[in-house]
Fold this protein.
Amino acid sequence: MAPTRFGAILMSAKGRFEMLRAQSVLTTLAAAALLILVGLPVLFILLQAVFPDFARGSFAGAFSKLAILTENDRLMTQARNTLMLAFSVMLGCLIFGLPIGILRGLFHIPGARVWDVVFLIPFLIPPFIAAIAWMMTLQPRGYLFQLVGFDMGRFLFSFTGVAFVMTLNLFPLVYFAVSRALEMVGGRFASAARVHGARPLQAFFLITLPLSIPAIAASLLIVFAMSIEEFGTPAALAARTGFEVLVTGIYTRLSDWPIDLSGAALGSVMLMAMVLAAFTLQNWIATRRSYISQTGKPADLEKADLGRWRWPVLGLFALVGMIGVIIPLAAIAVTSLMGTISGGLNWSNLDTRHYQPIFQQGSRAAQALVTSGWLAVVTAFATATIGGLVAYIVVRGTGRGRAVMDGLSVLPNAIPAIVLAVGIILAWNSPYLPLTFYGTAGILLIAYIGILLPYPIRYAVARLRQISGSLDDAARVAGASQMQALRHITLPLMAPSLIAAMMLVFAIASRELVASIMLAPAGLRTVGTFVFSQFEQGSVQTGMAMSVIAITITSGILLAVNLWLARQGSSAFSG
Amino acid sequence: MFRTTALAATFGLIGTFAHADTLTFYTAGPGGLADALADAFQAETGITVNVFQGTTGQVMARLEAEEANPQADVVVSASWGSAVDMHDRGLLMEYLSPNAAAVPDFLKHSHYVAQGISALAMVWNTQSDAPRPSEWSDLTDEAYRDLITMPDPAQSGAAFDLVAGLEAAMGEGAWELLAGLAANDMIVPGPNAAALNPVLQGAKAVVFGAVDYISYAQAASGETIEVIVPDSGTVIAPRPMMILQSTSNPDAAKAFVDFVLSEAGQELVAATWMMPARADVEGLRPGINDLNVIEVDEDAVAARREEIIARFNETVTNR
């Protein structure tokens, strides 16, 4: 906390009272939102884990399911595999995301706004589609073989292959977190180090990089949580090699008769424990010292020019973009345009007929696009509002429940979406509720906001830890109320992180699958469920065609927003 | 289901309003069929059918989670055993549609009736280097090394029925066959679609135990695959249709079941390349009487489910 408290002293008693009231109203709002969106489903999952017949309204046989924890060592193997995979993916994300994130944060990269949108595209591709795209590219007789005569099936269907594909789904998290954090740290501290005789690289590794540690740690925490929760990729690629993770077991319990809700809930509790441990570690790293770099002193915010490094750096961006974005996207597009899969890459096999069902007048595909579109927009704004508020209270507040709020906010990423969906059904479909969103599109909003809240919270918390509280105090001394200080000082400083998080949220919500399948009211389709049912019915090409259309529309929207922000002048949105 | 109104008015732009003229229908794929049935039924009766379509596992998980306050009226699953189980738990309403008269006795019960039937088969990519197989046991031949896929019995009820059926027909021989396939490097990549996809592209040559109607449809759309049903016999997977005891709209639910079992409804089922449940409606492909069907005692097999899956994992997937 900043030492400056003149403002408080100067204020009248009435003013101080208003300050406290404003803060407690905000805290109550944020806590209520978190409890309803996250705490409620988590509570019902815990109840289900303890009481096997909870879904039927019975509390019989408490703890009888705990036996599965000790009954076989398959579970332990799964837990070990889960952790190994998560650490490999974190490492992979650093390799892919860190260099380009640093460059984007510190230098003028030609087409920077466009690159931002390019690296958002992995989030627009549902993970199971990306896995299928890689499979069709690299497996024996896949596209790579058809083009150049060899395949990489052995690589893809292995531990490394799974980690590789999951890395490509997640590395942008590191890219965005690092580039935003470094933009904020800026060149000022490095310049000071240079004045004191440090060489450029020394200044970077001793000053600039350490100051962005909260952001890097926060993004790695999300990567960790998402890779232990991700099901599509291990299921598609690793099942055949006998490599099992915890989430595979959870899905098996939920995917075939007889359904074992309780066992699945228990498995999820293990995942939550893992993520809470990782969260504690990340929190320790982020708070054991100060990372404040934004104190309000006028700073040279100009980024450095790349000079003769321009082309090599662009080459690096292009390489990462090629592997992470272009290849899977091309595989999806090519598949959507094939008359038959077995016909292979022949011009005579080029056929647009699989797009027809989507463009039919009043088709269900069009409804799905509209539904996913408005759900994603509302989710993006709602998560940014709630997330920004929670982050503000966690970092700046004084209440005792702050750590609990912070921890609660990270849980949705740890719970497999299908289990969270079950928790939401149990919580919101209770016959005792006088009124409920269940059975309406509103339940999807509740699920999406709950699942995606961790992004804005993690991003904004990391950002706030870089902003000095004395800026607020200065505004207060100058006569601003707390709300005014929040609105005119803190919020604009948080905006870049919140906007980056909103774009992520929009991207992911626009194609969310697993919770949508479980929660969408009968008759309502989203892009994700539409694509999935196409795959299930065997029309792989129509599924891919729908993905192509959805990705095109969504990335177009994101590009437009990004360019509009650029025209507004980045000054409004950068530190 | 009436208590949603206030918030539904705000959020239910496309959401569902439950009243007398709507019916909620949960169904395992194919989705095209569910929509076609819903549209045709609405055209005939004016009753709106809201469809939720997923895999059998998703449908069942959702029913289970909603059990305190059920939402569905009519359910179709792809696993006969799930209907047996739900009936045992008293969740189903008794109803035998008059239109079920033409459905063979072994495909109907007082509380559930087949909507359509699929069979388990081998699906062979005709462009592959491997020769055309004609029997399950052919696939243990060296010519198919590393070229076979199979749906996971833990994830596909039909594949589970096949394992159980082969065991019923061949005894220990079934497990020797599966061990032989494992020795031939067969992969078990997941549910049906996951097993079929590598064969379409040619990464693998044959699916052992594919649900046949999807492949018939794909062959008809030009994929170079052939559905082969061994003469030695296979199992069938009837898809049970049932009305939940908790339905708030039993008349509409009964009318819907009647419609699905009407000639018009069964024509729609046949159009998906399944076998219609009614013996007097012609299918697009070989029917039950053309197949050598292995009888499976559903009750006995369901009781041994864990044992069979554990043995399968031990024999084939090494888990």
Observations:
- Chain B has a mean pLDDT of 89.
- Chain B touches chain A through 83 residues (CB under 8 Å).
- The longest helix of chain B spans residues 31-45.
